[in-house]
Specification:
The chain is α+β, with helices and mostly antiparallel strands. The protein contains 24 helices and nine strands. The longest helix is centred in the last third of the chain and has 25 residues. The chain is elongated, with a radius of gyration of 27 Å. The two termini are 34 Å apart. Its main location: membrane. Keywords: Membrane, Plasmid, Repeat, Transmembrane, Transmembrane helix, Transport.
């Protein structure tokens, strides 16, 4: 072993130990590994930042923006609501949720697909009277399986595609992963239909923000303009139209205010409806009913608006006053969109509601004005939640852009990086997502980690380290049939990915797998595919993949719960995945 090879292995080993230690952020660990490689001379200074210009960084960043836009569009929520009304048993609700997230994860990055459907899982759990833990871990595992189906479903597939292009001149295309990925996804879905019972039934999440600060349903006011879908309908018909989840607590017509509305009360153009419900239900009512939210004043459309959830402190100047009395918009440039007060059923108009300490307000205004206004008003911002009440959402356009991007990529017209970068840009340009929200959707630590690790992993190749490991593996595998060698690679990737980020696992393992295949006299395709599957299937821990981490808190899971469900699923992936890879890739 040469000195450069030894230094590369030492840096890689130290990086893995830091990942396992977990005290430093993974992007910082990657940066330290890059600095150490530069100091050791295994990475040349002129090559230090080549990773940041790699297509992988562009694809992952663009996929995150696309995922966020699809999530904001509401089209997924519409489909799920339709399903929820028809599926009542816990087992079939779990099946619908896992199937949905699996299909979505093939179209957008799996973490984005999971984030879209977590709210739906909470609604189903609430209706069925079970803990969300019955749904969340199977959904996380389903998102990992769905990510195996296409090139953009998960980062390992993108990285493996680039390694193949470096070796053969041809990358894996968008749907080259599909035959193996679909087979594994179906196998996983069948197992999870019964396997979800392995999750302890007593798991409960910590109290939510709503429970901790006593946030109840919000009260708001909305106008019925001419031509609105709600106009001419009874209150009962309106509630049915928006799929329930809210109440009409009052109706103002001209100078007359009705504190009680009967189901047969007819809604007319010009009416103001006083509504009460969860933010999602209120947003749905405004959107589907064609209503206009009441505001104390109007902000020019060129202003970038933000929505903040705030609580009225005991020192607030708003206590004992209404938004109209204090001239909230005229003096401070902000609007109160909705009010939440425990056990309060609002029958007065929104602007006339006298505020008290502890009220939770949805406050909307220009991003540049809100911090100063909240400080002056004595409002304390709560932890940020995804509340879109009062925002504008484009439903179909983001989906059309995504389908077009995937079609152009699948047909070979555009490279993946160009297609998805173009899709993200179009979504921002058409207003489907604001540039501010788009930048917020990008997980910058992941991109920094990728950019820093690419030259470090390439150093393992340039120093001959991958050849050395490949030779050792081939000697170890001497006498093994090809399925045994493939199993070795897949299991090795599965074993490493709980300790490294899955993208980092592939950056290290893919070149080794390719060398291993060459030493055995095989084409690299099957071994690269086995690496992608192994790195994409971390079902054993909550730390190996962000999807598992994302559901740990909301599901109230413990570290060992993942292995209870994940170990048999991992075994199934190996038993089914290896034969599938052999059949498809020879």
């Amino acid at each position: 072993m040469t000195q450069p090879q030894l230094l590369s292995f030492l840096i890689l080993g130290g990086m893995m130990l830091l990942f396992i230690w977990g005290r430093l952020r993974y992007d910082l660990v990657a940066m330290l590994a890059l600095v150490a490689s530069l100091a050791a001379g295994t990475v040349k200074p002129e090559d230090a930042f080549t990773g940041f210009s790699d297509d992988i960084v562009i694809i992952v960043g663009s996929a995150l923006v696309v995922s966020a836009t699809i999530a904001r569009s509401g089209i997924i929520e519409t489909v799920i609501r339709w399903v929820v009304r028809r599926v009542t048993t816990v087992r079939w609700q779990m099946t619908v949720l896992v199937s949905s997230v699996t299909v979505l994860a093939a179209l957008v990055k799996n973490i984005g697909a999971l984030a879209m459907l977590i709210p739906a899982s909470f609604k189903m759990a609430k209706r069925s009277g079970v803990s969300p833990s019955a749904f969340l871990m199977p959904m996380s595992f389903g998102s990992l399986l769905g990510g195996l189906i296409t090139l953009v479903g998960t980062s390992p597939n993108i990285i493996v595609s680039r390694v193949r292009e470096d070796l053969t001149g041809q990358p894996f295309r968008m749907f080259d992963y599909a035959p193996v990925g679909i087979g594994l996804a179906v196998t996983g879905l069948l197992f999870l239909q019964v396997g979800y019972r392995l999750i302890p039934a007593d798991r409960r999440a910590a109290p939510t923000l709503d429970e901790a600060v006593g946030i109840s349903d919000y009260n708001t006011e909305a106008y019925v303009p001419e031509g609105a879908k709600a106009a001419g309908r009874s209150v009962a018909e309106f509630l049915s139209l928006v799929d329930g989840g809210l109440a009409v607590t009052g109706l103002v017509r001209g100078a007359v205010r009705r504190g009680v509305t009967l189901p047969e009360t007819r809604i007319e153009p010009g009416d103001a409806l006083l509504l009460r419900g969860e933010p999602d239900a209120l947003e749905r009512a405004v959107k589907v009913g064609g209503l206009d939210l009441a505001r104390q004043g109007h902000t020019p459309p060129r202003e970038a608006l933000s929505m903040v959830e705030t609580v009225v402190t005991p020192q607030s100047v708003l206590i004992g006053k209404s938004a109209v009395q204090i001239a909230l918009h005229g003096r401070f440039g902000v609007n109160v969109i909705a009010i939440s007060r425990p056990r309060h059923r609002m029958t007065e108009r929104l602007g006339d509601t006298v505020l008290t300490g502890g009220d939770v307000l949805l406050v909307q205004g220009p991003a540049a004005v809100l911090p100063e206004a909240m400080d002056a008003l004595g409002l304390l911002p709560l932890a940020e939640r995804s509340i879109r009440l009062g925002g504008v959402r484009a439903e179909v356009l983001p989906l059309v852009i995504l389908v077009a991007a995937m079609g152009l990529t699948a047909a070979g017209v555009l490279p993946v990086a160009v297609a998805f970068f173009g899709a993200a840009t179009l979504m921002m340009a058409t207003g489907a997502i604001s540039p501010r929200d788009a930048y917020a959707a990008v997980e910058w630590p992941i991109l920094v980690m990728l950019g820093a690790l690419i030259p470090v992993s390439e150093a393992l190749q340039t120093t001959g380290g991958t050849d050395l490991i490949g030779t050792w593996l081939s000697q170890t595998a001497t006498g093994l049939p090809v399925w045994g060698a493939l199993t070795m690679i897949m299991v090795a990737a599965m074993a490493v990915t709980p300790f490294l980020n899955n993208a980092a696992t592939v950056l290290v393992m893919a070149p080794i797998a390719a060398t291993f295949a060459g030493d055995l006299g095989f084409a690299p395709d099957a071994f690269l595919m086995a690496t992608a599957v192994g790195a994409g299937c971390d079902f054993l821990t909550p730390i190996g993949h962000q999807c598992n981490t994302l559901v740990m808190g909301p599901g109230g899971y413990r570290f060992g719960d993942y292995a209870r469900l994940g170990a048999p699923l991992s075994l199934l992936v190996v038993l089914v995945g290896v034969p599938l890879i052999l059949v498809v890739w020879g």
